[in-house]
Amino acid sequence: MSAPATTVPAAVPTDERLPLLLSLNAGYVDTLGFIALHGLFSAHVTGNFVTIGYALGNGASGAWTKLAALPMFCLGVFLARLYGQTRRDAGKPAFMRLLTAKTLLLCVAAALALALGPFAPGDSWGLFATGMTLVLAMSIQNAVHRVHLGAAPPSTLMTGTTTQIMLDLADAARGQADEAARRRMGRMGRAVLAFAIGCGAAALLHVSIGLWAFAL
């Protein structure tokens, strides 16, 4: 008797433009959130530890929102993982559904920013709601990238990527970089450039059109 047929989840897109788009998005969202939400990092949690320390050390307001970003980020990754595993166990793909959820959360954050902003420094509920929605959205991107796009350079954290580029450049200067290292430099360099373009675009648009930059 032949084995029953199983449903194979759809393959994750291999188009290299997708990780670049995610890097562009991360730079844009992180910079715009940092400017409009008074120092809140939404795409990664490391920076929020620094700004929490600054707020506490200088008696500045806004520490609670930044403090809440860590458990919210963890919750988003946790839920994305559970959902992805549940879909996988059922023989169904999760990749595009998770990216869709992230996109919808970004839309909600944009609506909140436009409806409740501009935000004064501090822990207002409008700033908190907008910030936590952004953090939740970007936590999903981090989880999706780690699970489904692990071969691509990280889209939200550029420190390790930049370090690897410099290591490969040093090897290349000594004539010790192989073809794999040169390809890696190219891919990582494009990721850093996309992230930087996103950062610059967010800053310029915020100066030009204020919170309407969230609509993009």
Descriptive account of the structure:
It is a single chain. The protein is globular. With 216 residues, the protein is an all-alpha fold. Helices cover 70% and strands 0% of the residues.
| Structure class | mainly alpha
Q: What low-confidence regions span 5 or more consecutive residues with pLDDT below 50?
A: 1-11
* Strand residue content: under 5%
Strand runs, count: 0
**Separation of termini?**
55 Å
Global mean pLDDT: 88
Largest sheet: none
How many separate helices? 7
Written as H for each helix and E for each strand, in order along the chain, the element string is: HHHHHHH
Quick structural overview:
70% of the residues lie in helices and 0% in strands. The protein is mainly alpha-helical and 216 residues long. α1 (17-36) runs antiparallel to α5 (125-148), α2 (46-58) runs antiparallel to α3 and α3 (63-89) packs parallel to α5.
List the topology elements.
Blueprint lengths: L16 H20 L9 H13 L4 H27 L5 H22 L8 H24 L10 H15 L5 H31 L7
